[in-house]
Amino acid sequence: MRGPWSAPIDLKIDGCIDPGHIVGEDGRRYLFVNGIRRIRLSDDGLSTDGALAPAYQPWRYPEDWVTENFAPEGPKLLRHGDWFYLVTAVGGTAGPVTGHMVIAARSRSVHGPWEHCPHNPLVRTQSVDEPWWSRGHASLVEGPAGDWWMVYHAYENGMRTLGRQTLLEPIEWTADGWFRARGGDLSKPLPKPAGGKRGPNGVALSDDFSRDRFGVQWGFHDPRPSDAARLQRHDGALWLAAAGTSPVDSAPLTCGVPDRAYEVEITLAPEAGAEAGLLLFYNHKAFVGLGFTADTIRTYQYAEELVWARAPRPAGPMRVRIGNDENVVTFHYSFDGGRTWRLHGTRMEVSGLHHNVFGGFLSLKVGLFAAGAGRAAFRDFRYRALG
Question: What does DSSP assign to residue 247?
Fold first, then answer.
């Protein structure tokens, strides 16, 4: 796993997503993809060996169920005992909260025929009152002590801005060779997997930019090949070369956030000709935030500048804070390094900045941008969860 790794190899199966790998009873490798279709691979797994063909006609839910669309996808396979199990997502991955679901089938052979699980759907959100919406796209995993779990994604109730999150739900194998989800009411605590070693809980996001965390914490939105050269770290700061004319076309540097409520703050200093700022950024059509030129404070809402809200500012570095309390956003800024703070006159509500409105399966991230000419310095990024 530590490499060395080759360059990416194109398997030339365009239009396919969600590959699930399995070795059949014949000892050959196969990929299952959305559809649900199957293609054989070469023995080394580095090329295809045959044509893409239908593999399984998924179980159909009743027509009066409220879903996004049928959309069979996410095939994940494993061999357990004498059976191959195929776990699939249907119903659409977003849209109505009751749409996404997990179904399963089994076969003695990777070539079928496949038998529908009598417990389908194994997982599905039934109501907007549940704590997790659009649950689906599952894989089965065995814990270190032999217990079994289902890993899938979902949206937190009312917090689609956080993007799809990963859930772990216990399952049990039944006497008839099938399995059931045993999470029950997900508003209540669940047991942890048994055995193993406890790892760190979460990742500290505050960053003094003394270490390179690009690609681990920070990444450009929709990056161009040249964007990596825009970043430098020296003199205790992250220096970002300007691009574009505003946050819309500046390819902001973004950082994902995990909490329903949080505060972030940073010191920024644009060079002459540059505008630097702090954003909550979904994509170029959906963001809010503040920008600072050498002499002006600019306000962004609805992915555009509120020109009427421009205000003057003194020269020198700015300390800027954004608070997001369950999608209600408050801005503060300081002219003296954070000793005294000024409340910005506009609060914003951002619960609509998510996939169901703007597409892309993204999340609302913290963004740093530099636009115009020259560059900007960013120092002492601090993140604090609230509540």
Answer: G
